[in-house]
Structure formats: C-alpha cells, structure tokens
Amino acid sequence: MLLPLLRSHPLLHHAARLSSPRTRLLLRRDALPLPLARSPSHPPIRMAASSGSNASSSAPLPPPPAVVHKSKIRFCPACGSPTKLAIPDGDEKMRAICSSCGRVHYENPKMVVGCLVEHDNKVLLCRRKIEPAYGLWTLPAGYLEVGESTAEGASRETLEEACADVEIVSPFAQLDIPLIGQSYIIFRARLKTPNFSPGPESLECALFALDDIPFDSLAFSSIIVALRMYTEDVKSGSIKFHYCTINKRLGASPSDLRSFDIDSHIAV
C-alpha cells in the first residue's frame, strides 16, 4: 500500500528539507492497488525510492528531459507589432520581445483551484461537457480569477460546475505540473445543503463512494493523483496535506495514466 511505504521515507520525517532523498511514485497502467479498483484493469501505484528498505525493486524512471519553453505570444499586446524570441539582457531564458517597441512579454504559470467535496463518505464528481476531456469525470475546478483568493475561486468553480454551495474545510493538495505551466490547489469541502446539479460545463454530477470512483474515466492527471492520495488517506484513517510535482510526457493525452509520474511527494 502507498501510505506505509511513504511513512518510511525520510521526506515525510523532514518535510521542510526538500534536499533529502526524494520519493518518486510511478503511476502506470500495470500497477494500481487492486483494493482501490473494481477490476484488474485499474493500475496500481508503484513506488521507487533512492534509499530505504521498502523501495520497489523497479528502477526509478530517469528525470524528464529539460524542456525549452517557446512563447506563444506572437504579437505585442501593447502595440500589435510582431514579437521575436530572444534572451533579454540580464536574463537567462528566451522571451517574446516586441520587434517595434522592445517590450519584453513574460508568461507565467496558471493556477487551477477546485474542491474535493465530501458528503456521506462519498466525493462529488462532475462529467465534463466541454473539451478537453469531454465526457470524463473530474473534481469541480478551474482557473483562479484576479481579485479572488484560492478558497474563493475553488468555491466559485464548484458552484459553477456542480451548482453546489460548499464550505471549505481545509487545503488538501498542491500539485505542480511544470511542463504545462499549471499549479493545482485542491481544497476539502462539504456541502452546505445536499443539493447539486450539472452546471453549464457539466453533463452530470454524482456522489461516488471511494471504491466506485471511475479511475478509468477521470479527466486529468491532477485529478487522478488527488483522488488516489485522498482514497489512500481515508482508508488509512489519516487525511494529510500533499505536495508533489507531476511530470508529464510531451504529447500525451491529459488522462493517459501512462503519461506521467509523481516526484517530490510530501505528505504532512
């Protein structure tokens, strides 16, 4: 099981020391704990660690190759002139620089916020009515808006996607996805009233018992990871706060279980 292995790793005893031996969780279609799945087709979670007696015999995956980000800003937002890619003086990375006015345009990661809504020992999921991942299940989540806190944004997204009025209970996970420039913050929440229904971006909404979560039909790697961690926590009797990075492979679909692994996992 995932949690006994994680507890033995030095990272969890020294959560503030990111330089300690790191833990890599490998999510692959050929290995997910069957107690968390309803058929052998669900992949178990396999762990490989750089040290420790509980490490899997499988060798860790090599680190992903460095990705050079190419700016998608082709025209200057200030004057409309074409941009060119160049390294500004005093910088180290390629940036989009206006060929006319010389302004440097930076691109920063986007923050996605959402809620893991708990009700009667079940979790609330929405089936997407929009692309990407049309028809697949997800936690209610979306991009944070300017002017709102992460908790406010998570509550708003839950109201928009599931017509559910919720109360935030606690932060549950921060999941960074460097390749696509996204950072997820997921909160645990509870329904203020037992009412929910599909919003404009959802085909349907439903409460799922832990053993009934449709892991084969989840929309995104972040949702797969968050729900795996939550399921393990609940079954262990101790819900923690999780941080990790999700390393995705270039060109992989958002919901492909073989398209990513987890790095630098900390649970406190």
Automatic annotation (TrEMBL):
Domain of life: Eukaryota
Low complexity bias (residue ranges): 48-59
Pfam families registered for this protein in UniProt: NUDIX, Zn_ribbon_Nudix
Location of the region described as Disordered in the Swiss-Prot/TrEMBL record: 37-63
InterPro entries the UniProt entry points to: NUDIX_hydrolase-like_dom_sf, NUDIX_hydrolase_dom, Nudix_N
Protein's recorded name: Nudix hydrolase domain-containing protein
Nudix hydrolase domain ranges (all copies): 108-231
